[in-house]
From TrEMBL:
One of its GO terms (molecular function) is transmembrane transporter activity. The keyword Transport does not apply. This is Efflux RND transporter periplasmic adaptor subunit. Residues 240-300 form the Multidrug resistance protein MdtA-like C-terminal permuted SH3 domain.
Amino acid sequence: MTSPLRKDTELTRDYVAQIRAIQHIELRALEKGYLQGTFIDEGHQVAKGAKMFQIMPMIYQAEVQKANAEAQLSEIELKNTKLLADKNVVSPNELALAKAKFSKAKAEVALAATHKSMTEIRAPFDGLVGRFQVRMGSLVDEGDLLTTLSDNSKVWVYFNVSEVEYLKYESQPGDQKTTTVKLQMADGELFDQPGTVETIEADFNNETGNLAFRATFPNPKGLLRHGETGKILMEVPLKNALLIPQKATFDVLDKKFVFVIDEKNVVHSRPITIAAEMPHVFAVASGLEEHDKILVEGLRKVRDGAKIEVDYKEPSDVFAHLEVPAE
């Protein structure tokens, strides 16, 4: 037999997580036309500014030439009107109108050049190319999806926390609040970089009662990708916890019990409430006190009310053989 152990410890909680790239965008066609060229491949890394797609630019080049010609014509008309205005042959209003026409023509040149430039789709940031939605030679319309681009240099990992767990998290002193977390990947392996809890969503989900946390993980090897899943492992401190070995408990109708031994060495079954579960250990919420003596071995060999002879072992000796995390 032994007694419960009072100590500070840690509990590892796990949460289902969704992995998102810090930047993940859809690249869409900005102009209508035939897709003339693709300069990247699916799954490849591209640098910011790299040319990715080319929509046939001939029509837009012709629009630029047309706008330039009209601008030149407007400039000539403006010069002639100015000469006539200097000789008082035409009114100031006609000169102002000629200036406005020239300004409009220059704006049309800029607009045509902008349309032409948008036939080239370039990478807005360093990233990983997704699946192509169109192939070379396809006729694309303005707004059609071409592919996606993901910046996976860092990833955001979202996980949902219950209202009770959120309140416990926020009640921790600032210097003791758990901000470092680990990521268990889908294959059960731990990701080799720690993450940091950086932000908490503003509102609870009324349907689930949960609140989303977001942790940021560096991803220097690019192992994590947008859309993956995993589990967040968060160490939660348990202050002044009352701990007992799991093997000292038994179940009756889904309730936990222990055998408490009184001063006359008589065994009494007592229900307890579990606050938290760790490997080989339970943290007790109610039902036991630190001075109580409980049976650890041979629970199946005794019955309630029996008198036994058993040696007492110090809690520190019993727990030395168990995996109890220390804070």
